[in-house]
Amino acid sequence: MTAETRMAAIAAMQTSLEASGYITERDLAATLLLMADLGRPLLVEGDPGVGKTEIAKALARARGTPLIRLQCFEGLDVHHALYEWNYQRQLLAIRVAETAGASRVEEDALFSEKYLLKRPLLEALTQAVPPVLLIDEVDRADEAFEAFLLEVLSDYQVSIPEMGTIRATSIPLVVLTSNATRELSDALRRRCLYHYLSYPSFAKELAIVQLRLPGIADRLGRQIVEFAQALRQQGLKKQPGVAETLDWAAAILGLGISSLDEAGPDRIRETLSALLKTHEDVRAIEPVVLDRLLALAS
Prior knowledge:
Distance between the termini: 48 Å
Largest sheet: 5 strands, parallel
Shape: elongated
Oligomer: single chain
């Protein structure tokens, strides 16, 4: 592939993602192309609210392929992530067979695909068309589960004792996200491409607001983004992410506010529940602080 062809492919990826509601820089678009070319997972780290999960959602929309999500949490085990047996249906089948006079039910019949409940990982590996597999907040899962993921992401196959090895029908596009609540293993990092996502620049966040809320006036959009970006500099316990900016912009529009400075601090404070998520942060935005933030955004 020539340099010109590659640049065109990256630009096409950016355009495709934007059409799917996601603004991205060239480096991330290039990484997403590499992920597909190399068949490697992508690990995305960054603060909460910067849009990590949205990457997988937008990629699935852009490719017109299913999004399969595994939400990680402490105590997540293989059965929640991979498969479970439908014991109720198996028991019912045994009782039906006994009622019909059968002396026994073959074990192979009970442990067949008919009684298999596919969880996200197995669901992703058995899709005819490569889906996007989102393994969200992998840092919340414990190290034992992370070690299990290594096998899945290396060979794209899993073992079910009663059925043997199941190899991927198609290789999914895997996006892992992490908020860095714990350090991930070097082994997992080596198997992944890597991208760090920061809070968006003013221009990027404004573009996101204008894309998601196409009816917003240019001046109001700029004021909203200026205010949100200034708010992130206040040392809050929970900094507002892009989703909070969009919620706040929708709230402002819903109230018919056309300008932050014209609306006044009392009216604006009534909408801050979209941005401030802890009692400490609400208390931190005292009237004098709100006045200063509104002055910066005007």
